[in-house]
Amino acid sequence: MSEKGDELRAESSKLQEAAVIADEAAELEERQKELTADMQQKWLHTAPITDHFSIEKKFAKEFEVSLSDAKKMLKNNLKKYQIEGNDIPQMIKQLKKHRRTLKGEQKVAITASIDGLIKAYSDHLDKSIDSIYWIAKYKPALKDMNCTEDHIIKLSTITDEDTRRNLIDSLCKYWENKLDRNDLGFSPEYAAISKQMTKDKREFKRLIKSHINPVTQKDIVSSHIIKAVSEEPGISSRQIHERLPINLFKKTTPSIISKIATTNNITHVNGAFYKFSDDIKKDIYAYTAAFIDSDGYITMDRNFNPRVGLVATGDRGKAFMMEMQKSLGCGRLHLDQKSPQDTRPVNRLNFYSGADVTEVLSKCLPHFKMKKANAEILLELVRMKKSHKKADWYKQRREELFKLMKYENHKDHVGFNWSEFDIDVNSIEKLYGNNKMNEMDRIEGIIKSSEVDEAIDDLEEIAEEHELSEDEWSSVDDASDYLFEHKVMEDK
Fold it and tell me: Which helix (H) or strand (E) is 273 found in, with range?
């Protein structure tokens, strides 16, 4: 019996070592993907201005991928950022109007919500600009143009060389005028350049507005396909074809339908097509949280590596894992794996890197019903590993988090061997009380405070460039006081 036990322990040790090696390999592969993506972005941002098709061909040659893959990788489908069909700027305007009717804590709370919404929207616009490879390097000038989200979306659809060049020429003229103006004090020449900059802005936006993207038959068929797949996941190309209007039915075939669906990034599994509906995409993190609660896991291994994953079986499960990855924009797929029961294949979407784990869990956190505690434990761990490894409490707290995660994952398991992990169930609550999030906030707040100090200096430096009246200087002083009181002092 002892000999058999030794064999089992040896086998267990080998399996653990293999798991660690596999995890390390997965992380290396993930890092390699990130480096490749960075290289591709740098190449795109330095590529000469030309038409989109030429860029696709050069990209395919440069990175040794097929032209079809290059088309997929460079495809840009920017969509408007909306909440329940409402534009964000309009929502912010309505919230600010409502804020005027509030006082005290309610006013403070809604101000925080407005600030958070503005930040999220600003980040969205930044990412949208970054995704338009031919104009991303001109982002400072583009943002100074005060372009709306509609302008940015329209820019993402421009594929011809002439229009791109004209727009960039207009941007450069505006920026050159701005640089010239920066060297001037307030004067007639300053006013003349400012007037020209206003004209440059108008010309830039006129060029965007005047660009017309003709609606093709393919576009119309695509809209029918997307509608059919969203309404009936798992539908076949033959079924989609049969539901087309008669004029489109005659001009297409199931094979053509399949090809168009592929170009629209619609997931295809064994003859069936799947695509998340807009309702799911609007609430993707609520959907993800529910998925993790029911068919996923949040844990860490013995080397304190974070592990988050979603699991689904069969073709439909495979399709949904693929759709989840596309909608979330992160994670690593493991498809068609053999199940322990050797029944239907298992499909997983795993999150290994600290950045991916933080991105997913922080946004899912308000929506968890069952695994919220697991998420909070892992978010604390990831934050510690990223910025606080040298803290004197780091190693001890890391061990505590491992025990807490074991407890959360096995507290409902009758007969679980807690002693194997040195866990005292009766005193486990004390470990929750050792949470280091506030301590990390305090440490990182010191850095934030210095950044605010710099912002105050910048504000006053900018103001000094202009001949301000006493009342105007009072406004600058009020702004400086606000920054200090509400940002610096709060951090302390």
Answer: strand 272-274
Residues 316 and 452 reside in one and the same domain: no
pTM of the model: 0.52
Strand order in the sheet with 296-300: 296-300, 306-313, 346-351, 332-337
For residue 479, what are the domain limits? 438-491
Alpha-carbon gap, residue 176 to 141, rounded angstroms = 10
Q: Quick one: CA torsion of 441, 124, 455, 96, rounded to 10 degrees? A: -90
Closest CA to 131 of 169, 74, 82: 74
| CA–CA gap between residue 327 and residue 321 (Å, rounded) | 10
- In our burial notation (b when 16+ CB lie closer than 10 A, e otherwise), range 40-55 reads beeebeeeeeeebeeb
The predicted model gives 150-155 an average pLDDT of: 89
Q: Where among 164, 187, 213 does a domain terminate?
A: 213
Query: What DSSP state is assigned to residue 283?
Result: T
pLDDT above 50: residue 492: no
The C-alpha angle with vertex 339 and arms to 27 and 18, in degrees rounded to 5, equals 40
Least Cα distance to 323 among 268, 282, 373, 363 occurs for 268
Neighbours of 304 (CB within 10 A): 16
Distance of alpha carbon 423 from alpha carbon 401, whole angstroms: 11
pLDDT tens digits along 283-301 = 899 999 999 999 999 999 9
Q: HSE (CB half, 13 Å, CA atoms) of 145? A: 28
Same domain, 294 and 417: yes
Is residue 266 within 8 Å of 229, Cβ to Cβ?
yes
In contact, 240 and 229? CB cutoff 8 Å:
yes
